[in-house]
Amino acid sequence: MSSAPSSSSSSMVCYNPECKELKPERPRKGWRLRTGELAELCDRCGSAYEEGRFCDSFHLNASGWRSCESCGKGVHCGCIVSSNAFTLLDPGGIECIACARKNVILSSNTAWPPSLFFHSTLPERLKDLSVKNWSQLAGSGPVPWRQAPSLFGSITPSEMHSRVPYEVDISAAINKLNAGERIGVTSLEKRKIEDFSERLQNGSLKLGARDALENGTAGRNCEDQINSCLNLGQQPSSLKEEPSTPQFGLSVPYASASETNGQVGAAGSNLRPTPPPMPKQFIGNLHSGVDSPGETQIRNARPRADARGRNQLLPRYWPRFTDQELQQISGDSNSVITPLFEKMLSASDAGRIGRLVLPKKCAEAYFPPISQPEGLPLKVQDAKGKEWIFQFRFWPNNNSRMYVLEGVTPCIQSMQLQAGDIVTFSRLEPEGKLVMGFRKASAATPSDQENETNRNGNGVSMQGDAELADPSSWSKVDKSGYIAKEVLGAKTLISRKRKSSTLGSKSKRLRIENEDMMELKLTWEEAQGLLRPPPNHVPSVVVIEGFEFEEYEDAPILGKPTIFSTDNMGEKIQWVQCEDCFKLRKLPADALLPSRWTCSDNSWDPERSSCSAAQELTAEELEDLIPQSVSVASKKMKAAKLDSENLEAMEGLDTLANLAIMGEGESLQSSSQATTKHPRHRPGCSCIVCIQPPSGKGPKHKQSCTCNVCLTVKRRFRTLMMRREKKQSEKEAETTRKKQQVSLPDKFDNESNLTSNTGNSPNQKREFHDGSDDEPSRMKSSTSPFKGQIDLNIQPEREDELSPGSDSGGIIKFVQDNPARYLRQQRLSSSGGSENSSGNLSQRDGGDAIGDKLNNGINLGRNLHDASDDHPSSISMKASASTTATG
DNA sequence: TCCGTGCATGGTT
DNA sequence: TAACCATGCACGG
């Protein structure tokens, strides 16, 4: 093979190095190359290949021939052409596929690998059967586990090559990676589909329906099989039973359109790193449970865990293993891995009780059968190779069973897992070991995120890779760090939480996330406030439930919030505030601004393209301007019909929508109010929230994304981390201070309260109070953190600024609540004085506040950061006031 | 009183 | 509506 052309399709000659013939115009398709292409052959070689005598014809003198242990037939094991034509036997030797299949059929329902039992309870007879068939099914030794599925159908060389993506051949995958041959899954799959379809048409591919009949899976199972074959796209083509449906869902290789509840089908074309759990050993390890004995599970793409057959694993339990994860689990060995299922840890799972509730179907499908509630000790290996013994058992529950793994606490602690993280179960072959891996919440939930932008062309989660490569990387950081890193994925967790409330409110970690997200929240109104119509586009205005929506045919632009107005000439203009000097600059109404805009960006007015230039706007004009902007901004909401071509805007929207949803998802009273007002329930609504696919679906930003939105968000999270640290130390300091100041006069107390109350203007929107329920102690401690002490830095109005929920509107809210202050600051600013010139901390602070206010709402993080650096105590105060206001 | 165990309950799908 | 499953809770050591 070494002399084979580098590319099958580019060469003019037959891909068979032994044959120098020119390829015909329509070359015959041969075996699957490592690049994913099919070898293109001349007619003669093609026929030989299709008839299964290629190696017989051309490799007779080559090394690598072995005989089938059962029928004695020679198989050219050392050759890619026949790589799928045999299976390795545990005792050694090989078996040709035909024999292997026969054996599988004979003992299809037995093969739970005894090695998984701490004390094997299987009868020897069964054990022997299991071992043999297990290994066959799993493939053993160096034979990648993808080979196993070939056992499921009638095997011809051709069909063996029609693999589906989840048939992960680790070594091949790694080779590809190393060779830089990262083939896009989509194109690869396309080729596969084409190939498959082609061979279906020319009849070279025998489909396996016959086998279903042969092995007794016809009848009831057959329906399942067909369903899964047709819809899931998870199976080897050899398993496909419906020749007339060549597409059989491969275009959606992971998501199942067939899921009875349809939730996965909605995932559309998103690809996942490792396809669904196509437990190749499905046949074998599906213990009978309530199944009738002798029944086989052959060809079910997903486990059929009980006799009702219609039941299938919920998509949320489908393992989403990346190649790297598989590799990580298998280590350097030649072991092959079968992803079984995964589960997001609930609070109970991760709690101290040490019971991990197992999804019933997964337990019944992948774990050994248990008939007694006491269950069995189960040996499980973690990714580091450490072995754990859990008690796999069940409780009777509502005429059903509830399966649990007991004693998982040490393991979970060792992995430093918490609620929301995901544990994965897979099986290592040929050892038959059960392997428990994990994925931290940030990298996890591809199911929720449907996040293909996090993945490279091969559908490999880079995020996940990093974590897998260093599983401790996450756990090593403190909560702040964790959250900071997790931020972009946080919404996922939230959406999940919103969906099912499966993550307990008692989870400390979740509380903290709530806290974070309170701070990160951006309401949908705020997010929409950041949208601008695309250039040269006049939005149409729709009124829904009393709210005006601008609707764009094109993608909206994310920009710095500005104040629209009309100048003396009657022309539409907008006012924007420089981020450096806070002066307002007049710009054309159609000017689109980046989220960070400074005077130097003022290309429209060179005279005012420097911060040193005076502000054009007089105080009076500003006064006129404010009510305008307030009313406009408070009512205006913008909707957009997205243009997928506008990636930048799309990404921004996405993030904003994430944030918006995050905010809503926090189930804050105030947020939910916004939610109820939001016309999301209107069919066809294209506002920023509604265009965001629910539950984390849809394109997301990559971790490395450097768009404005992401940068801003990241900045913000950095700030949050710092703030938290600061808060922590402040708290401690406050405690000390309080102790020292107990005896101070009441009037200070009163003043403090007064200040606090001032900050609690009912007009101000409260987005911050949610966590108060979760953290009463926090609330308590912050109720009056400055008791007995006057802090001149306290700016009640800045509370707003600190309230993430109110940052968007920024200037608007500020001026709404404090028009006089705003004007004063503007006067100072326009007179050229620095904000510090007054020497008055309050004023300076106010100036900052304006700056903050005028910033894009999502810039708040940086602003908060600045503010907290300057006046850490006031931050604490504001947060507390905010909390108190709604607590 | 604490903790582990086993079952019951109720929310979600 | 039934099944699933997260979690609450009673009970006993």
Automatic annotation (TrEMBL):
InterPro entries on file: B3_DNA-bd (IPR003340), DNA-bd_pseudobarrel_sf (IPR015300), Zfn_VAL1-3_N (IPR057743), Znf_CW (IPR011124)
First-listed, main subcellular location of the protein, grouped into a coarse class: nucleus
Keyword Nuclease in record: no
Subcellular location as annotated: Nucleus
GO MF annotation terms: DNA binding; zinc ion binding
Domain TF-B3: 341-442
CDD domains tied to this protein: B3_DNA (cd10017)
Biased amino acid composition, Low complexity: 828-842
Domain of life: Eukaryota
Region (Disordered): 260-281, 441-473, 724-813, 826-887
Keyword Plastid applies: no
Keywords attached to this entry: DNA-binding, Metal-binding, Nucleus, Transcription, Transcription regulation, Zinc, Zinc-finger
Swiss-Prot/TrEMBL GO biological process terms: regulation of DNA-templated transcription
Ranges of biased composition (kind: Basic and acidic residues): 727-737, 764-778, 863-872
Polar residues composition-biased segments: 444-461, 751-763, 873-887
Cited SMART domains: B3
A GO CC term assigned to this protein in UniProt: nucleus
Domain CW-type: 569-619
Protein name as it appears in the record: B3 domain-containing protein Os07g0563300 isoform X1
Organism lineage string: Eukaryota, Viridiplantae, Streptophyta, Embryophyta, Tracheophyta
